């Protein structure tokens, strides 16, 4: 089933006009609306469209750069049949996330008439390029896919501890099958072969990405040769018995499994208020706030989470503290707005005293004034007709919205700044400075039923990673 986008767009603009007309009570004659609708799509200049649909350069969200050839086609080298994506940018995003059996994506071609996107393999080159209006090609400079040092950066089975306090056991030359998830940091959830997202230049960087992922990341596999593609750092929600040798063609992979994590204080404080830095917070155990997250950091207990909120300069008014770490290792969520408060056994919500809590669902949606009533007599016929159209359009709109919601992950509001996506070093070191020392060496039995043996007696002692 395909829905014609331009038809929908015109219906939507039509609807907006109708709603506007209704809510202002203005009289509108039907033929005017009709003619507006008919005139709109045809008046757009083709040249303008072509250039606006082909960017002059592009860097994907995970850091892959493209050299773009607008109105040029490069045939052959197709990895598989084309698929439809709405923009050239989206086609390049797919390329940056493509996971192949033995090589990644080296370029794309996107046809703006059909919206078809072709993923190209390493045989692509500019040799066969030819001009074609409405078709745009983009090549990945080879240097970005040239293999990094594939030797194992740490001793096999050694324990490496990040400055954030998480201990990882290294499995050289191994990969974890499965345990993939759409982590909240991914800009969009895609299915195979585009499930991955992160690129890392080192196993250490990949481990840091894991420590910052939501929900809780319990392992990573890293592919320095990028045989699987540019998205070579794969956070995993577990590892189970799935630590294995890579398949032929995947090249070298190294794996790091979270084996120690500090114990989080799960006790709800007996006092229901806490004062720090001159600010008082009301504590609500077993609740959470669905408001806007500014950021998330790792904290061992609620009080140090509240200390962080009190000293935050971005308008922190409340926190959600997740003592189970289910949502991620960064378990202290600082928030700048309050919204619907819900019960949740695993989290504690604390609010700056005096901050108002909305009593019902926030009134963000402007419901169309269906009882707009007092329109002038001239519009008596337009009313019911437009009303019907509005109803249909709202249903379609709601359907599209729902589809978008389900297809696409909620945009994460406390994102690591896009520029930092592939260099979390700064984040990590600043966090280390903030946190000071943390107690380490606890056995971490996680919630998914996977048991982790504490390795430090048998393996080498934990080492602080070089920065
Ligand atoms: C992509 O281009 C930007 C800006 O020119 C540069 O800073 C970055 O290092 C490039 N990325 C890669 C992977 O080469
Ligand atoms: C690249 O694609 C072409 C055409 O689909 C195919 O013949 C070729 O074997 C592919 N090369 C590699 C290395 O996968
Ligand atoms: C796209 O459409 C334009 C206008 O109809 C046409 O000139 C052009 O050849 C088409 N390009 C492709 C690649 O289909
Ligand atoms: C856990 O937190 C509670 C309440 O804040 C406190 O009374 C208790 O001493 C803490 N336990 C540990 C082991 O720190
Ligand atoms: C804020 O973080 C919490 C905890 O992970 C999460 O449940 C919630 O969806 C986030 N809120 C938003 C608006 O992203
Ligand atoms: C809350 O924080 C988010 C993310 O930092 C920001 O975009 C938003 O404008 C802030 N909202 C308020 C009300 O301060
Ligand atoms: C909370 O954690 C901090 C830092 O880890 C520690 O200094 C403090 O004693 C803890 N507080 C409680 C109540 O456990
Ligand atoms: C709370 O955590 C437990 C185990 O950690 C989990 O089984 C349960 O589903 C969680 N409850 C909620 C409401 O998230």
Automatic annotation (TrEMBL):
**Compositional bias of kind Polar residues:** 422-432, 444-467
- List the transmembrane segments: 379-402
| Matching Pfam families | PAN_1, PAN_4
Where would one find the signal peptide in this protein?
1-27
Domain called Apple: residue spans: 268-356
Alphabetical keyword list: Membrane, Signal, Transmembrane, Transmembrane helix
Task: Give the highest taxon in the source lineage.
Answer: Eukaryota
Which residues does the annotated region (Disordered) include?
420-467
Which protein are we looking at?
Answer: Apple domain-containing protein
């Amino acid at each position: 089933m395909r829905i014609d986008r331009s038809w929908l767009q015109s219906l939507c603009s039509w609807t907006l006009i109708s709603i506007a007309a209704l809510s202002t009570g203005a009289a509108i004659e039907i033929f005017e609306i009709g003619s507006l609708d008919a005139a709109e799509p045809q008046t757009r200049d083709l040249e303008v469209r072509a250039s606006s649909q082909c960017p002059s350069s592009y860097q994907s969200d995970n850091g892959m750069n493209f050299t773009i050839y607008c109105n040029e086609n490069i045939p052959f080298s197709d990895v598989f049949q084309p698929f439809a994506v709405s923009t050239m940018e989206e086609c390049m995003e797919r390329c940056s996330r493509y996971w192949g059996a033995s090589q990644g994506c080296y370029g794309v071609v996107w046809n703006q008439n059909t919206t078809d996107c072709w993923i190209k393999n390493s045989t692509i080159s500019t040799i066969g390029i030819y001009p074609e209006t409405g078709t745009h090609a983009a090549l990945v400079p080879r240097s970005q896919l040239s293999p990094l040092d594939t030797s194992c950066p740490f001793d096999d089975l050694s324990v490496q501890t990040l400055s954030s306090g998480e201990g990882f056991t290294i499995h050289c030359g191994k990969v974890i099958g499965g345990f993939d998830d759409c982590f909240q940091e991914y800009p969009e959830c895609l299915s195979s072969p585009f499930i991955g997202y992160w690129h890392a230049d080192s196993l250490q960087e990949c481990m840091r990405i894991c420590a910052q992922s939501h929900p809780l990341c319990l392992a990573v596999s890293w592919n320095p040769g990028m045989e699987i593609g540019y998205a070579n750092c794969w956070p995993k929600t577990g590892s189970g018995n799935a630590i294995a040798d890579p398949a032929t063609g995947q090249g070298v992979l190294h794996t790091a499994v979270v084996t120690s994590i500090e114990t989080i204080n799960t006790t709800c404080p007996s006092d229901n208020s806490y004062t720090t830095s001159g600010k008082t917070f009301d504590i609500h155990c077993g609740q959470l706030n669905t408001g806007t997250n500014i950021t998330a950091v790792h904290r061992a207990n609620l009080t140090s989470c509240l200390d962080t909120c009190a000293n935050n300069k971005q308008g922190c008014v409340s926190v959600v503290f997740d003592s189970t770490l289910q949502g991620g290792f960064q378990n202290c969520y600082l928030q700048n707005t309050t919204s619907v408060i819900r019960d949740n056994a695993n989290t504690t919500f604390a609010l700056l005293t005096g901050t108002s809590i909305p009593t019902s669902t926030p009134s963000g949606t402007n419901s169309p004034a269906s009882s707009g009533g007092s329109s002038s007599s001239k519009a008596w016929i337009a009313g019911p007709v437009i009303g019907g159209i509005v109803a249909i359009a709202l249903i379609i709109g709601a359907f599209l919205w729902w589809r978008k919601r389900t297809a696409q992950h909620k945009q994460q509001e406390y994102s690591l700044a896009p520029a930092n996506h592939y260099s979390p070093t700064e984040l990590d070191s600043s966090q280390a400075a903030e946190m000071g020392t943390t107690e380490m060496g606890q056995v971490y039995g996680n919630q998914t039923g996977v048991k982790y043996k504490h390795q430090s007696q048998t393996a080498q002692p934990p080492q602080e990673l070089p920065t």
